[in-house]
Amino acid sequence: MFRSLPNLTLRHSWFKSSYAIAKTIRQVSSTSVRYRSATKFNEESPNPEDAADATSTVLSDAVDFQKRLQSKNRLTWWEILQKRSERIKEGKMSDSDTLDDVKTTAITDKTRSDSFSYVCLPFKDDIFLRDFYINAPGRLRFGHLFQDLDALAGRVASRHCKPAEPMNVTASIDRIYVTKKIDEIDKFNFVLVGFVTYTGRSTMEICIKGLAYSGSIPANITTDIVISDAEKCFISANFTFAARNPITHKAHAINKILPTTEREWADYKRAESHNAAKKMRAKSENLNKVPPTDFESKMIHSLFTAGKAAESLEKRPENVSFMRDTRLNSTQIQQPQYRNRNGIIFGGYLLRQTFELAYCAAGAFSRAAPRFVSLDNTTFQAPVPVGCVLFMNAEVCYTEHVHETKEDAPSSAQLNGLLNDYDTAANGLSEDPHELISVPGTLIQVKVSTKIRSLSDSKHYIESGKFVYSFFVPRDTSGVFDQPGYSSVIPVSYEEMIDYVEGRRRAYETAAYAQQLKLNGEMAY
User: Fold this and answer.
1) What sequence ranges are listed for the domain HotDog ACOT-type (predicted)?
2) Whole-angstrom Cα distance, residue 474 to residue 403?
3) Which of 153, 190, 301, 441 is the most buried (most CB within 10 A)?
4) Where are the domains of the chain?
5) What is the per-residue pLDDT across 232-261, written as a single tens digit (0 to 9) for each?
6) Which fold has domain 288-519?
7) Strands, DSSP E only, in 214-319?
């Protein structure tokens, strides 16, 4: 079906093109004869709405399909299956379905500008492109944006490793943080920029910034734009990519990053100290090995008594939920249309799927449309192969309330009476109206755990990753006071208590990250 679509070039030139996607949308929409030859449903219907609805559905899938698959080493899935069969006959095993040779193992120095890449998303100028990225409430559909962030980070990693061609994979995501709320995407043109800030022996940290322009997109986009247009930043992200040799299955040494300015050196040192601190925390603060602090132990006891009190009520308030009651599950078979250049499922697609499940969990819990705040520390534990079954389990693992100075909402008094006021929020009410947490409300953290198994094996599961998303739901929506009000989740089992403690720690880490962005001038309007 998709071979009849116009070719959408998404190599390095796509990252420099503002209108490639939208142009394809217009071409596909206007090519009715080609559309009819590619689809076979409701052909005899007298209602033009049938064709219009079908066009929209097929178009969305087609654009998404084309965006993900265009690359220099692209092979069709049929060609990949044939190549796999040949390798099996020859007794060869490779982690990648497209890469046979890393080309070179030589290491050199690369600057930030060597890896710099960008994507333009002109939502203000192009209504067709905007329609592909809009969600039900009319705001930005972050799941689709996450795919672009990961794809851009992959492009940056590839450019930094040149002339070598190792297998680059998303190892982890330190943070994706919304620095400024964007309520109406029709008023902005977006530019996503990415570059390497730090390198280890075989890993690289990639910084992604999203800039929102109320006017035209700048004609000249370089690394300097991150500093000159810092006040336009609406999202900040840090990815860690790892390079592997697909034949030897070992880590592949990559080019070193060479900072050339004072700002680049500051970013390098910050990343270096952050990585060292993260390794130290993993040893000293791992709740699987180290017990909670004294304060956290007292908080666990408060949660325990609150849970007992809630269970004894004949009718529990609707804004109070046990953690076990917030769980949502989803099961999918992974299809080849969402593979990356190595023949495994694209990391950005997993972000999109887990995010949308987390969004559902947060919305069902709070009884309102949540606003995305951040993706907290996330690790990809195992690759997700095409054809496997992916199991996703989401649960609300932490909540905190952001109050006014003089709080008079009935929902607040109700929760304080039931929960003994154990709330120790990491976030305070911001005085900047352009920030998400500038009004009273509830910060909701949702953890999505994923695991995979083969269709032919119903017993053995592999943990593939954990994704933690934070959302914010204002206390008052649509101008109605205390509706939906504040919401609280209550853990009951000890395992749930530990999840809650970890969630609180993450909330404080994210608040500290936001403070650092403010010091850098990236959260000023």
Assistant:
1) 119-247, 324-451
2) 10
3) 153
4) 1-70, 101-281, 288-519
5) 999 999 999 999 988 887 899 999 999 999
6) Thiol Ester Dehydrase; Chain A (3.10.129)
7) 233-245, 250-251, 256-257
